[in-house]
Design a protein that fits this description.
alpha+beta; Arc Repressor Mutant, subunit A; ADP-ribosylation fold; 3-stranded antiparallel β-sheet; 6 helices; 8 strands; 33% helix; globular
Length: 177
């Protein structure tokens, strides 16, 4: 059952964050799609999901990647397709964390943290979460971001529904040594 839920979560990520058109979905400007449309599209493309499975994935996902409201679902953040999540600017804590892998450190130290194909750089509120994020691609390295200083210097931050902090770019001077 656990493997099935992981497969569903990855399927949702692909189609709610990166490629909704692949299964005929159209996200609204804020990234929402009716749950029934998602379930119908998934079934029509050979990956049926029951409403109970969908609810379990949304409720049990350790990173709370998805939100269901008013019969609609969306990914909390991490989109590569155009969406406007409508998150207000927020004052971050003094320090935030970013999990990565060692092979990327030289580039990050030179260019800072960039969103790559996403809309924002994702930052974690605690070191443990950053370790889990970084470990997805190999032995993790956790970078400390001086978010309070960035904010004081005019950089804008947002906080997603699942507690992930978002910003456009973290320049190298804001990465703690």
């Amino acid at each position: 059952m656990r493997r099935r839920l992981v497969r569903i979560s990855k399927y949702l990520a692909r189609h709610l964050r990166h490629d909704p058109g692949r299964i005929g979905l159209t996200l609204d400007p804020a990234g929402w799609v009716p749950v029934e449309e998602l379930l119908s599209a998934a079934a029509a493309h050979g990956f049926p999901i029951t409403p109970a499975e969908l609810a379990q994935v949304v409720e049990s996902n350790d990173k709370r990647r998805y939100v269901i409201e008013d019969g609609r679902i969306r990914a909390s953040q991490g989109h590569t397709v155009p969406v406007e999540l409508g998150l207000p600017p927020a004052e971050p804590p003094d320090l935030l964390y970013h999990g990565t892998v060692g092979r990327l450190l030289a580039t990050i130290r030179r260019e800072g943290l960039r969103p790559m194909g996403r809309h924002h750089v994702h930052l974690s509120p605690d070191r443990d979460t950053a370790v889990r994020v970084g470990a997805r691609r190999g032995p993790p390295v956790v970078l400390v971001v001086r978010a309070g200083a960035m904010h004081a210097d005019g950089h804008v931050f947002h906080r997603s529904a699942n507690g992930v902090w978002l910003t456009g770019h973290v320049p190298p001077p804001y990465l703690a040594p």
